[in-house]
Every structure is written in C-alpha cells, then in structure tokens.
Amino acid sequence: MSLKDIFVHLDTSAACERRVNAALMLAREHAAHLTGVAIVSRPYIPAYAEVEIGMEIIKERQQQMRDALEDVGAVFDEQAGQSGVTGEWRILEGEPSDILSEQARYSDLMVLSQDETANDILLGGQEIPERVILTSGRPALIVPRIYKDEQIGKHVLVGWDRGRMAARAVHDSLSVLQTAEKVTIMTANPTTNESGNGGISGADLAVHLARHGVSVEADHTVSEDLDIGDLLLSRAADLQADLIVLGAYGHARWRELVLGGVTKHMLEHMPVPVLMSH
User: Fold this and answer.
1) Domain hosting residue 39, numbered range
2) What is each CA distance from 52 to 45, 56, 167, in whole angstroms?
3) Over 80: is that where the pLDDT of 254 sits?
C-alpha cells in the first residue's frame, strides 16, 4: 500500500502540534496529500444539568470552540505550505470518535496521539485512539506524548506473532517499510504451531518483505520474566528503533482491557510512534 492520503486530527491540545509535525514529515517523505479534520463536539449534557446550564451557554461554548479551531486550521495551512505539502482542512460537527473513524476511511493512514481525549466540561470526554483503531478499518500512527519531532520510520521494529492483526499491520505499513533503512522482524517468546513453525515464521515474513524491496532481518527474544509488551519495548530501545509496527487487539478487547495485553501496554508506555492496525 502506498501512502498518498494521510489524515490527521486537529484540536486545541498541546499534543496537536506533535502529531501534525509527524503527519507533515510523513506526507513530505511520501509525497502524500494531508487532510486535517477538526471537530466541534455536540453537547453531552445530563438531563438534570441542561436546565441549569442553559442552551445559550452551550451554544456560546461551541462557538468559542469553532473559533479556536479556525485558528488551528490557519496554522495548519501555513505549516503545510512551508513544508511543501499539499493539504486541506475542515471543521465537522459530531461525536469525535465517530467522525474520526469515518474520515479515516478516506485515507491510507490516520495520525492520532497517545492519551488523546475529547474532553470538555460541557461536552463530555472519552479516549480516542483505541476506539478509532477498532472501528475505522484503517491503520493508525499513534504519536507518543514524549515525541520531539524526530525522524519516523528509518529503523522499524515489527512485532510479529503470526496472527491476522499483525499481518494486517505489516501490509498496511508496507510503504513505510520500503523506505526504511532497516526493518527488524521481532518474535517474542516464539512457540511452535501445529504445522511445526515457530520462530521461523519471522524468517518467512522477512523473505516475503525482502521480495518487496524491504531491507529486513528476522530476530527473536525469549524471557520468562518480562511480558511480550515489555520485551518489545526493551528490544526497540536496544535497536534504537524510531517506529514500532504492531497488530492491535489480537485477543478480544475486553480480555486485553481486563487482563492486560500488548496493545494496552503499548498505548500506555510507547517510547516512539507506533503504527497499529486492527
């Protein structure tokens, strides 16, 4: 898959600048069109509070949000022009996760932030990345809170478990993998399946990606003390990877949220951008 349409969420948070910079970097490198979407949330007001707040206050708050987003859009236009990236932006009204999921379907990749929320005292709040990843059907680049405008995708670590989600993530990120200087396929605590394949599956994937012109090698690590999420993070640090590619929610989402899982762990502790698919 080539990256020709990238989509980024625009809002008034401090995280917006980081994810826009990451999106601009990728758009410039892949000669992609960049679309920014800002959202004015529809009011979520408990019935008992609506009378006390009053519709005039609600409408005034929404207009203030729209005005602030107009300023964000103007900055986005200026940044895109300075970066030599073709772009556009729009303001839509609705429930943030629903709008982002729908808009993402018209793109090759969406760019979101770790811990991104739609949060307003009048308009409610929610976690955005996991909901959009699960419902959009498109890959997402999640930018960590500690991102400092570093290069993305020169050395990529791919978390591989032979599963459907991991395969989806690999092929959704193929354009990024093809432009990387080095790609490492990482199998953590490999096991043998019924066909007799275990750790060798990483080598099989490496051969497949090499046929697509990817500079790739297969690796694996075993540890009884660390869970898979920590193993991947540790290996990413050892390799100085600047991007992790990972399938999202390979197990049932409720199981990962209750018992813990790689996706949940990565969303909480990611040190570098993570490209996820579900």
Assistant:
1) 5-143
2) 10, 11, 52
3) no
Domain end point (choices 87, 112, 143)? 143
State the pLDDT confidence band at 51, using cuts at 50, 70 and 90: low
The predicted pLDDT at position 168 comes to: 95
Cβ(241)–Cβ(184) below 8 Å: yes
Q: Which of 61, 70, 18 is nearest to 41 (CA)?
A: 61
Same-domain check for residues 202 and 249: yes
Structure token pair of residue 178: 């093809």
**How many domains does one find in the chain?**
2
pLDDT of 75 above 60 = yes
The Cα 43–Cα 269 span in angstroms is 32
What DSSP string runs through 36-47?
A: EEEEEPPP---H
The pTM score is 0.85
Mean pLDDT of 145-156: 92
User: What is the chain's length?
Assistant: 278
| 122 — pLDDT class (breaks 50, 70, 90) | very low
Answer for the pair 107, 54: CB distance below 8 angstroms, yes or no: no
The DSSP H or E segment spanning 245 is strand 243-247
DSSP 8-state assignment for residue 242: S
Q: What is the three-class DSSP state of 6?
A: strand
Tokens of 235: 């290996």
Query: Distance between CA 277 and CA 173 in Å, rounded?
Result: 9
What tokens does 24 get?
């601009």
Cα torsion for 72, 153, 147, 16, to the nearest 10°? 10
Contact (CB, 8 A) for 276 and 140: yes
CA atoms of 142 and 116, how far apart (whole Å): 10
Q: What is the DSSP letter of 144?
A: P
CB atoms within 10 A of CB 114: 21
